[in-house]
Amino acid sequence: MRFTGKVVLITGAGRGIGRATAERLVGEGAAVAILDRDGAVADEASAALRAKGAKSLALCADITDRGALGGAIDQALQAFARIDVLVNNAARTLKGNLAQTTPEDWEQELAGTLTGAFLATQLVLPGMVAQGHGAIVNVGSVNGLLALGNPGYSAAKAGLLNLTRALAVEYGPKGIRANMVSPGTVRTQSPSWQKRLAKDPQVFEKLARWYPVGRVGRPDDIAAAIAFLAADEAAFVNGANLVVDGGLTAGLPVMIEELTLETR
């Protein structure tokens, strides 16, 4: 029960990694504000948590709209009085390569992934500073570390890593830690993955061979890492990027097979 008495705000929490994180943290005692730009999805996720006896509030806002986002955060503060943990999970990806990416796509991907996280962080920081403590966990991606397609999204995730480090250095002395989790492929119901599945129903099985653990990730895998970084037991972890990718960025197992002609 590491989060008993703590209030957590999670963006993009209606489904996927965000929802799994909400379920994980309420299971450890947290009160959770579920923020999503799809109000119906946020309401359903929050209601499911309350049905299990958890304290949860549904919030609807587009994180790229500072006014709407500020209003939603004010609702959370009115309901719970404070925010102890912010999880910047919301993101947006539109196009798979540079040739397809228009300037409008680029702006939307940066706004929905990087600028939105900046705005949410900027809005919760005054309260965290006033109370003298807080934890911010940004959800990055291996796309921010390697060239894996989706250039606008990838550039935004790379920027999120530097933002995390800037926060850690500037606000660490004020009792606020900032860290990042960088997942590999995670099987979710996000629109981007639904499009890929429509083209190739076996895409996750094909991707699994690139992962040394033999599978792609599950939302729970990432939620566990977020829970650790947000908890007090990680009090000396600040400015870190925890890569949760089943070993993808540790090496190239498929290339090794082809190079050595030996199977795993």
Describe the model.
The model has no long low-confidence stretch (mean pLDDT 95). The longest helix has 29 residues, at 103-131. Strand 2 (31-36), helix 2 (39-51) and strand 3 form a beta-alpha-beta unit. The chain has a 7-stranded parallel β-sheet, sandwiched between helices. The protein is 47% helix and 14% strand. By secondary structure, it is of the alpha/beta class. Helix 1 (16-26) packs across helix 8 and helix 4 (103-131) runs parallel beside helix 5. The termini are far apart. It is globular. The protein has one domain (7-188, 216-248): NAD(P)-binding Rossmann-like Domain (Rossmann fold, 3-Layer(aba) Sandwich). The protein contains 9 helices and 7 strands.
Give a quick account of the main beta sheet: strands, pairing sense, barrel closure. Answer: 7 strands, parallel
Count of the domains? 1
Strand content: 5-15%
Assigned CATH architecture: 3-Layer(aba) Sandwich
Instruction: State the share of residues found in helices, binned by percent.
Output: 40-55%
Average pLDDT for all residues: 95
CATH fold description:
Rossmann fold
Q: How would you write the strand order of the largest sheet?
A: 3-2-1-4-5-6-7
Count of helices? 9
What overall form do the CA principal axes indicate? globular
Write out the CATH superfamily name: NAD(P)-binding Rossmann-like Domain
Q: N-to-C terminal Cα separation, in Å?
A: 40 Å
Give me the Rg, rounded: 18 Å
Oligomer: single chain
Task: Write the element-wise H/E pattern from the N-terminal end onward.
Answer: EHEHEHEHEHEHHHEH
Text of the CATH class: Alpha Beta
